[in-house]
């Protein structure tokens, strides 16, 4: 999956789960500071990403997810490993 396509899908999920307009979501958007996520939101997002992309995210990986860019990069790496 191309990075742009992956970003678009991640942005759609974040928009839906956090009730944030999709046009407000950029790769540099910080989940907590810019998009208003809390720890429960973050947990929900991880569950959706795992289901949507058929991957497993480890706790130490999840702790490093601060921005949308972090999420896209990690998902891209996980999806590449599956190929």
Automatic annotation (TrEMBL):
Example of a GO MF term: acyl carrier activity
Gene transcribed to yield this protein: acpP
Modified positions (O-(pantetheine 4'-phosphoryl)serine) in chain numbering: 39
Pathway: Lipid metabolism; fatty acid biosynthesis
Residues annotated as domain Carrier: 1-79
Species whose genome carries this gene: Fervidobacterium pennivorans
Post-translational modification note: 4'-phosphopantetheine is transferred from CoA to a specific serine of apo-ACP by AcpS. This modification is essential for activity because fatty acids are bound in thioester linkage to the sulfhydryl of the prosthetic group.
Listed HAMAP family: Acyl_carrier (MF_01217)
Official protein name in the record: Acyl carrier protein
Any one GO CC term of the record: cytosol
Keyword Protease among UniProt keywords: no
Function, in words: Carrier of the growing fatty acid chain in fatty acid biosynthesis.
Predominant localisation class: cytoplasm
Lineage of the organism: Bacteria, Thermotogati, Thermotogota, Thermotogae, Thermotogales
Any one GO BP annotation for this protein: lipid A biosynthetic process
Assigned keywords, A-Z: Cytoplasm, Fatty acid biosynthesis, Fatty acid metabolism, Lipid biosynthesis, Lipid metabolism, Phosphopantetheine, Phosphoprotein
Subcellular location: Cytoplasm
Pfam family of the protein (one): PP-binding
Domain of life: Bacteria
């Amino acid at each position: 999956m191309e990075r742009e396509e992956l970003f678009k899908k991640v942005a759609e999920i974040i928009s839906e789960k956090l009730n944030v307009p999709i046009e407000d979501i950029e790769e540099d958007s910080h989940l907590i500071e810019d998009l208003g996520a809390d720890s429960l939101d973050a947990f929900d997002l991880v569950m959706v990403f795992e289901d949507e992309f058929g991957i497993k995210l480890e706790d130490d990986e999840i702790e490093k997810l601060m921005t949308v860019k972090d999420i896209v990069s990690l998902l891209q790496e996980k999806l590449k490993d599956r190929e």
